[in-house]
TrEMBL record:
This is Amidohydrolase, PncC family. It holds the Pfam family CinA. It comes from the Bacteria. Residues 3-154 form the CinA C-terminal domain. The lineage of its organism: Bacteria, Bacillati, Bacillota, Bacilli, Lactobacillales.
Length: 157
């Protein structure tokens, strides 16, 4: 993990008073762990979600089950819904979501090393796809988190 990037993003969020949350599936809390590794992060991070199972995405984040059934859990639509749900639940300025197939097996026809990362900032949401089938499971999970920190840096800070 690029600790310089993580420190820069979290410290910048603190300086700008931009609150953040996350809804994580394949990353299993790794992104939130990286946020809280930075001293002072409690100023902008009050909590988040690890929603590994589809039913938990529906129960905690209000991701509609028909949306998951129609598009699959590894999709732009679900990443957007997860980010929006997390932002709505915790009323933060910024919410990031992660959904995908870390591997070694694929998921719902998607190859291992495929993810969608949603970013909701002040009500505007987008999602980005990431494909790295060459990476091992945990390397891909870290790559997803690093990608999200870079997107936050590029888009918001």
């Amino acid at each position: 993990m690029n600790t310089k990037l993580v420190n820069y993003v979290v410290k910048s969020l603190i300086e700008k008073n931009i609150s953040i949350t996350a809804a994580e599936s394949l990353t299993g809390g790794l992104f939130q762990s990286e946020i809280t590794s930075v001293p002072g992060s409690s100023d902008i991070f009050t909590g988040g979600f690890v929603t590994y199972a589809d039913v938990v995405k529906t129960q905690l984040l209000d991701v509609p089950a028909p949306l998951i059934q129609q598009y699959g859990v590894v999709s732009y639509e679900v990443a957007v819904a997860m980010a929006q749900g997390a932002q709505k639940k915790l009323r933060t300025d910024l919410a990031v979501s992660f959904t995908g197939a870390a591997g070694p097996a694929g998921l719902e026809g998607e190859t291992a090393g495929t993810a969608w990362i949603g970013i909701n900032f002040q009500g505007q949401t987008d999602a980005y796809d990431l494909h790295h089938p060459e990476l091992a499971r945990n390397d891909f999970r870290e790559a997803c988190c690093e990608f999200a920190f870079q997107k936050i840096s590029d888009r918001i800070l």
